[in-house]
Amino acid sequence: MNKHKYLWYVGLITALIISFVITSAIGSAGISAWTAVAIILSKLPLLGNVIEPSWASMTETIIWQVRVPRNLTAMLVGSGLAVAGASFQGLLRNPLADPYILGISSGAAVGAALALTLTGVFGSIVFGVAPAAFVGAMLAIFLVYNLAKLGNRVAVETLILAGVVVGSFMTAVLSLLLIRMYSNLHQVVFWLMGSLGKGGWEGLTWSALIMLLAIVGLCLLARPLNLMAMGDTVAQGLGVSTEKLKRIILVLASLVTALAVSIAGTIGFVGLVVPHIVRLLIGPDHRALLPLSAFAGAIFLLWADTMARVILAPSEIPVGVVTAFIGAPFFGYLLRRRKPI
Amino acid sequence: MQNNKAIIRIDNITCNYGDKHDNKQILESLSLDIQAGEAIGIIGPNGSGKSTLLKAIAAQLPLASGNIYIEEQPLHAWKPKQLAKQLAFVPQDNHMTFSYTAWQIVMMGRYPHLSFLESEGEKDYEIVRASMEITNTWELRNRDIQALSGGERQRVVLARALTQMPKILLLDEPITALDVQHQVEILNIIKELSEQQQVTVVCVLHDLNLAARYCERLALIHNRTIHALGSPQQVLTKEHIANVYNCNPFVMTNPLTGMPEVTVLSKTDFSKTEN
User: What is the pLDDT of residues A214-257, one digit of tens each?
Assistant: First the structure.
């Protein structure tokens, strides 16, 4: 059984590397995958001296200054949303939980938009945006959880409804805030719908590092999370400090969501679709589910973003639209399916 | 009343249940000593507080007053993981959300014995296998827990409790939803554990006759406290049952088990025997 799992790791990491190279090459510039590989390799420490550049400097700029950082951002955001989704699902014992469906992404977006309105600047990700998004996300999950909680139980359907309630409210607040942003309304709306087009290398700063650490942190909590998926009472009986663990996981998962939103806007359904498929393949053990969802989420968003770039080329559509086109029907399918998940 | 050998000492506890709007007193000034290695059954009518007592022992309910001592140490002074090595709790409701395999569920019982990032070793695998063999679930190890029948799932959850290697096993109506043959199967496993491995068993039971057959001692809960305590013969008397269950019982000795057997009659049944 263990060897079986290693094969999934090997397979997904290989698929991720191949996807990274291919999606770096795909686009209107007509760059071959081999050129993309050569350019990426030439930037690596030791290999850089060995490889002779045989490409135009324009090509190098497109690959190295635009597509590579954009793809790295897509990978980070994709794995973050997938791991956050899987964590929410395990903790809330609800296979339909997802940062977007629970309204947490909208909460983070309100926080981010508020910070932008107050600073009045919409440039690269300013320092204040991510913490504000985090506060918004925490507020949203706090509201959703307490709305859905009846006694000690949080029912599957109630939680989704509470997410709809909080999400709608947050969206209304967001619309109100957007009215104040005459000058760059188009940019802000595009970002809110989910876009990885901004940033370049500058986007991958401290917030990316914190997000990576939070993802690793969630993966390390996989074993107690398995017990939490049995219910609070059982987990406590098996020696888990349930209240403490619940807080840590909610904070980490909301942090990941908030950072993902501040980097790339609200990209929905990644946290729903990816953990589901991974769970179908390898089972619900979070010790494999969380890290494998991270890799699968990275692959998923790489391709979703590539589709966003090329479907209506030369113009670009928000990647959040692509994930919603895939995720919303999938969500409907899960709702209809009566078989236990 | 205080006994130094008691593995569980319940000292004058009062328990309230519910929230601030609907606050009910469930247990009041209840004291009970449970000896190491004994099998004690908690019986009583619906809503008498049987399950509440068990939850209180499992540290899942705050006590309004009084104290519970496990191995002479007050419950709140135990660290969660240390307590989980002392006592295992088998809840009544075993709803499962995800498709873990039976083996994965049982392995979760090793959690209190493993440090934060320690992975399971040979010893843990052996303990899981032994627990699953005792409970007759080893054949189910690769099956999806959600696809198992109620009785099979109950046995898997019991196996998980055993892998905790507890000194005390708390069971909340472990057989209520089961067929008769599965009821006896589960109770036999529990009885063997108590007799052969000196595990202390505290078991909430609905069925008075099964309680009499499988428990050395019974505690009858009524009006928020212990109404009667002692051997099945001492507790299951016509008088106690008539008072507590507000019914018309007929008590005889089962010729096979030698234990009291209760038959409840309604007021109109067999009016001749009544007189």
Answer: 999 999 999 999 999 998 889 999 999 988 898 899 899 999 99
CB contact under 8 A, A239 and B80: yes
User: CA A337: distance to chain centroid?
Assistant: 25
Cβ distance of A233 and B96 shorter than 8 Å? no
Provide the greatest CA pair distance for chain B.
Answer: 70
Instruction: Report chain A residues whose CB lies below 8 A from the CB of B96.
Output: 230
Residues 6+ apart with CB under 8 A from B197: none
Asked if the Cβ–Cβ distance from B100 to A283 is below 8 Å, we say yes
Taking any CB pair shorter than 8 Å as contact, residues of chain B touching chain A are: 19, 58-60, 80-85, 88-89, 91, 95-101, 104-105, 108-109, 111-112, 114, 116-117, 146, 164
CA-based nearest distance B12→chain A, Å: 23
A283 interaction partners in chain B (CB closer than 8 Å): 99-101, 104
Q: Measured between alpha carbons, how far is B33 from B11 in angstroms, rounded to an integer?
A: 8
Run of H or E residues at B66: strand B65-70
Query: Given an 8 Å threshold on Cβ–Cβ distance, is A239 in contact with B117?
Result: no
Band the pLDDT of A152: cuts 50, 70, 90: low
Residue of A nearest to B89 (CA): A237
pLDDT digits (tens, 9 = 90+) for A272-323: 999 999 998 899 999 999 999 999 999 999 999 999 988 887 788 889 999 9
8 Å CB contact between A60 and A48: no
Tell whether ipTM is more than 0.90.
no
Cα–Cα distance for residue pair A338/B10, rounded to 1 Å:
45
**Do residue B85 and residue A239 have CB atoms under 8 angstroms apart?**
yes
Strands B217-222 and B39-43: parallel
Question: How many Å apart are CA B9 and CA B5, to the nearest integer?
Answer: 9
- Number of helical H runs and strand E runs in chain A: 15, 2
